[in-house]
Amino acid sequence: LKIHSFLTALQGVSGIHRFLTDPADCWAYGVDNSKEHHLPDAVLFPTSAEAVQNIVQACATYQVPLTARGRGTGTPGGAVPIFGGVVLCFEYMNRIVKTYASDRVVIVEPGLLNGDLQKAVRQEGLFWAPDPSSQDYCTVGGNLAHNSAGPHALKYGTPRENTLGLVFVDGQGRLIKTGVQTSKGVVGYDLTRLLIGSEGTLGIIVEATLKLLPLPEKTITLQVFYRSIEDASMAIIRVLQSNIMPAALEMMDSGSLALIRQHQSLAMPQEACAMLLIELEGTSAGAQEAAEYLTPLLSGEGFSQLHKAETAAEKSALWAVRKALSPTLRQIAPNKINEDIVIPISEIPTFVHFVETLSHKHQLSIISFGHAGNGNLHVNILYDAENLSESKRATICLEAIFDKVLALRGTLSGEHGIGLLKKAFIGRELSQNTLDLMKSLKHTFDPHGILNPGKIFP
Amino acid sequence: LKIHSFLTALQGVSGIHRFLTDPADCWAYGVDNSKEHHLPDAVLFPTSAEAVQNIVQACATYQVPLTARGRGTGTPGGAVPIFGGVVLCFEYMNRIVKTYASDRVVIVEPGLLNGDLQKAVRQEGLFWAPDPSSQDYCTVGGNLAHNSAGPHALKYGTPRENTLGLVFVDGQGRLIKTGVQTSKGVVGYDLTRLLIGSEGTLGIIVEATLKLLPLPEKTITLQVFYRSIEDASMAIIRVLQSNIMPAALEMMDSGSLALIRQHQSLAMPQEACAMLLIELEGTSAGAQEAAEYLTPLLSGEGFSQLHKAETAAEKSALWAVRKALSPTLRQIAPNKINEDIVIPISEIPTFVHFVETLSHKHQLSIISFGHAGNGNLHVNILYDAENLSESKRATICLEAIFDKVLALRGTLSGEHGIGLLKKAFIGRELSQNTLDLMKSLKHTFDPHGILNPGKIFP
Predict the structure, then answer these.
(1) Counting CB atoms within 10 angstroms of each CB, which of B43, B62, B263, B387 has the fewest?
(2) A194–B193 CB contact, under 8 Å
(3) Does residue A89 contact residue A45 with C-beta atoms inside 8 Å?
(4) What is the model's pTM?
């Protein structure tokens, strides 16, 4: 009933491209990559910041929950409207508002696809550093909501390091402009980074000023095979203790390589049980020198082979394999627990050994790969949900992994966020005092409790 | 009276190294580099986080204002206890708690001097990027409070990009742990960056986890002279549109060069009216290649001379001149308005031309220098405070500069903060909605209003 009053109140408000209220139409907007689902009462497609303000104000008046949505690629369920209400869809707010190429700044709307942004600024010789695997079909707004990064965060940072300012609508419908258009600034509180990673619970981003970087002159990709994951992880430590900072340093374990062997054609030595993918960027001479410098560090115990890819075709073949891993895994293992824990670099060997032992003990396949240069591993526990014993063992493994991560001074999420699926675990990492302060902060931004309710907090 | 009850309540609390209550002893703790002064009622020197919690709780109970203090090097008066009360001095909380060299992480107490931190981690081949000119006598806690950076922020960022986590005490005396010890993390809200730059108004930082970087193999410093500041600023644009990112790019105008000519011995061509100092860091070949690549871009209209400094002695002589500018200026011009505005790179020529015109029009010497690669200029308006007309003209110039900066999409402060002296101007940059939200956020963190009251907000 309140939803009807709400919708009536919005009749005639300009800047709303479409209203969906038929459950059949709304259905697809109730799910994201977590596979959780809850039907929203309505789906709205705003086309302006003012429309978003009007919608938020109406939600506040009628106590209607509001969940902002990019393209639903998030894995922990952040975009699922678990209390129904309204899903706010940014498909029609996807413009590049203005590019200041000389200042390396671009102003965009939140519904712009990351990949479309990259294509546009590439023409100016620039790129935006965050590059999730899903970049061709995830939005900048979603990247900001979860601080989603990707391989190149190693050298260039996450959205927090690559966003200069935001315009957002708070839970009272007020338009707030925060941050700067310059590479430095300290005027008032840093609401920009506070909003980034807040998963739509503090405000609705309607515009973002992003920091761009110049495309490097030269990129060299090294593909290195090892006999064991422990050997590969020791090589990572040697590389990251040098003063060469790779642009990306990805790791794949034996399970990942088995998948690749089955589903893709990529030559690799028989004995290989782990692979590193290292990207070096810089001037021509600088990148070459970096590759020469790293080569002996990459050899050592358990080293098998090193390939240096220099042509665009070779490089994109290597990355295609890496980027296909996550979707391939999803195909073959519909029930997987997909985590994105982070551990300090020096603890990677301990951690991968722990996971191997756990996998043997509970007889479950656990496949790890990801942004090892940041210590950010995607740990996938595969199980058959119809098999009660397997489901139970998967949960035991998950809890053991989280506890180990925290014991090793790590964190439960590097780039996916907490959303719905990890909120039961947040109390293991954050103290009650910290959670209480965060909750009061949520109340300050959203006194009516309408913004993506039921997320982050247990 | 309330201060006496407060001090009585703290008797016997452990972890307080010293109490000062004699006005003669307290006097020096009532001033900072703003030259504003207000006598505190007491100065306390905590030695532990627990002591800070006890002090904050007592301040809340007795409604005593609390101003945290590093070494008082800040220029906008952030450390001046304008309502008296307690100054909390971190001189005895200056330890390096733990260094994880392989993870490039160090955990420190807030009273540690930036320079002492650099000396300690240099032994491990590492550095912390923020390097204010005052680094030998300013604290890490102060750097965090104001997000203070320095020349190398161009390539490596400010404290916000180089701090992983914090432990702080909120206005209710609760101990809050936020952030991570890894290079990525998105669990709960980003209170780390929110505290950074909040000038002691949201919480008292008692421990910081800092991100370290490897010392570069090779550094090359280029010193380039131009016939005019406009010519120098066009060269900056050419450099920053290339895909070489200098570690630092500093600019000095004719007034700065005149000062150097008078007070220092540094050879420079007669016709030089502007100087750039550019630092290139990387592998040996990489840095050399970058220097060769930039050299033709640095020539052009108004170019006079280029010197390449490679020996440590040459380089430190160049930097000594740059770092001495601010103190020298202070000596010769006791009354100066020292601003640190930021403008987009592409607007530097327009801005420096504007300042020159303004200086002529109002017959006041305005000296600009600073971190031009970030568009962050320290604009110094020199005047005689005894001369009423000059004082008035100085204020007119200041207001005109602020308005111009905002019209050019800039910001009023890059690294000094707002403190006391700039709070009258913050409303020109931030909307009332934004200020209102920031004030409620302040109330959430500090419901009793005891943390550095009277700062930031008008």
Answers:
(1) B387
(2) yes
(3) yes
(4) 0.96
